[in-house]
Amino acid sequence: MSLPSRPSDEPDTASSHAELARVVRDHASRLAAALVRVTGDFDTAEDLVQDAVLAALQRWPIDGIPTRPDSWLFTVARNRGLDVLRRQDNYRAKLAQLQWPVQPEPDDRLRLIFTCCHPALPRPAQIALTLRVVCGFTTAQIARAFLVPETTVAQRITRAKRKITDAGIPYRVPDPDELCARLTQVLAVIYLLLNEGYLPTGRRGESRDLLDDAEWLTVQLNQLMPTEPEIGGLLALIRLHRARADARFDADGALVLLEHQDRSRWNRQLIDEAIRLLERAAQLRQPGPYQLQAAIVACHAQAQHWAETDWEQILLLYDMLLHLAPSPITRLHRAIALRYVGGAQAALAELDALTCELDLYYLYHATRAELLRALGQPVQARAADQRALELTSNPAEQGVLQQRINWT
Amino acid sequence: MKFVLLFVETEQFERDLEAMSQSDRDRAYELAAKWMVDHADKIRGGNKLKPAYTATTVRLNGGSEPVVTDGPFVEGKEVVSGYTEIEVANLDEALNMVKTWPGCPLVEIRPLEA
Questions:
Q1: How far is CA A385 from CA A152, A352, A402, A404, in A?
Q2: Is the previous residue joined to B102 through a cis bond, with omega within 30 degrees of 0?
Q3: Does residue A170 belong to the interface with chain B, where contact is any CB pair within 8 Å?
Q4: ipTM for the whole complex
């Protein structure tokens, strides 16, 4: 199949890609959820939807997005199903009875999300499955987003789907008494999408924007489970990042650190909305790690200038976060805040206590370098930056570190 | 759907059990027995195994003579100490059941073929 020639107008291509991703995401998961419910077979239903998505990604850029993308996908998936399931009469019969529009059940999408993020599946499989089944990614798009070979992703998905069927993982929303633990799994998957979308391993602009998908997933959860404050916290966190996304890269695509960002490029309206969202979550009086992280980012986002940052409040929030979810990485971030409250020497002492746990983490050494430089030890600082450079494979981070080694 | 729960003991668990007073140990066994009774409607069978030192493993090497060795097939700190066959709707039901198990610290859940 040959693609018709098109003007290589970059922004237009990018926006039409985003539009395509949005439409597929909106409709593919609805269809997947309905088909799983009707056929009772997760694996088969998912394959049919994936085929329909691949067909859409081939046809729509040429023919344009149809006026009813949902019924288009439905028809392709249904016909494909009637075709491939020729020998499986029970599925065929169920599928043949299926009429458009499929009556959605409110819990359909939640069922899908909780099944994909079931704790009996390994985390990489949870991520791949969620992206493919819930967000309508193709295997190739997942591979590109995480810089993993396509065969690896395909294998993860095949294994995960086999496990869902063979191990008896049910297609259901967890009961209230299980919900808290299961929601933690789902939010962890979304948080990893946020991290990857925040600092893509692949080259920017070449893959689907994972921040979009992380936000969309969280919005769905938030609508379906409005009394879970950690969902609101995570959504606020995602939006606070989005509000400042443009200022994080300069005209040449190089990463700009928070201290040097042009804060007039931050989207104030989006920041205010995110903070209101966070305040609503906080009213439920169940603090959690995502609400606290969002509150920390909100402190930064509210400061008009770097010098106005409320470091004491940030330090307090880190203390609360460490209390709820102790982790060496959070201690590292707390040490960065401590520098502006208790001085560089105190922060460095805190870092020294973390050497064993974080010696292989680039940010640990990059932070050490900054502190050493502030304490007038440029030689050790350069060595620490060099070590950090060896430890990160992220091109944006490498850029910042290389520049520091060259110029300071 | 049928599953087998494989109860796995660790060295630490064994030591803890030995260190208990007789009455505490009796209490621990009572709790495990009560769990079995509480879930009797789902339990289809099973048994406690004799300790690992009683195990004998046979390795069948194709054409050559089978090799018989002393001990369980994996030499390790974790040893299967019992099994229970259960019948429940799905993995989540099995998980919910196992999460309340008051005995040994590891339980493997495996679906049965039929």
A1: 33, 16, 8, 8
A2: no
A3: yes
A4: 0.84
Is B89 an 8 Å CB contact of chain A?
yes
CA dist A172 and B99 (Å) reads: 19
| Cβ atoms of residues B68 and B56 within 8 Å | yes
With an 8 Å Cβ cutoff, are B111 and A167 in contact? Answer: yes
Nearest to A303 by CA among A328, A331, A337, A277: A337
How many Å apart are CA A174 and CA A183, to the nearest integer? Answer: 9
Q: Give the whole-angstrom CA distance, residue A170 versus residue B94.
A: 11
Residue B89 and residue A170 in contact, taking contact as beta carbons nearer than 8 Å: yes
Question: A351-374 pLDDT, tens per residue?
Answer: 999 999 999 999 999 999 999 999
Q: For B96, name the nearest residue in chain A, comparing CA atoms only.
A: A178
> Over the stretch B56-114, which tens digit does the pLDDT of each residue have?
999 898 878 888 888 888 777 889 999 999 999 999 999 999 999 999 999 999 999 97
Q: How many CA atoms lie within 13 A of B31 on its CB side?
A: 11
Proportion of chain B in helix, strand, coil states, percent, rounded to 5: 30, 35, 35
